[in-house]
Design brief:
The protein has one helix and no strands. The radius of gyration is 48 Å and the shape is rod-shaped.
């Protein structure tokens, strides 16, 4: 009977130790679950922040592309205007050189300018339309 009582007491102590260990492990488990939940919430918040940043960067990129396209159109328009002005300047230069040649010929021993047929110029300035 004494041996059985000692064995029962030993079993109770072991049971008590196992219950304490089990409660300790439950507390550790709950603590780890909370940490996991906090990590998931932080991760989700960080992912949402990164998604917002990506959206803003995509908007910025789209706006920059649109602005670049607008600048390119403006540059092409200005280039077309420059080309038209260069053509017009060349035409006027040619007209002036022709007038200068006629003037030099007239004062270089020709009887008079009235005897030369008067030149007729038909310069039509071109209008360039931009392709926008």
């Amino acid at each position: 009977v004494r041996a059985s009582r000692r064995e029962a007491g030993e079993c109770r102590r072991q049971l008590q130790a196992r219950l304490v260990e089990m409660e300790s492990l439950r507390g550790a488990h709950q603590s780890l679950e909370r940490q996991l939940q906090e990590l998931e919430e932080r991760h989700n918040a960080e992912a949402a922040g990164l998604q917002d940043t990506i959206g803003q960067l995509e908007d910025d990129l789209r706006n920059t592309k649109n602005e670049m396209a607008r600048h390119l159109r403006e540059y092409q328009d200005l280039l077309n205007v420059k080309m038209a002005l260069d053509i017009e300047i060349a035409a006027y230069r040619k007209l002036l050189e022709g007038e200068e040649t006629l003037f030099n010929m007239g004062s270089g021993g020709l009887p008079s300018l009235n005897s030369l047929p008067s030149p007729t110029y038909s310069f039509q300035p071109r209008s360039f339309s931009s392709s926008t």
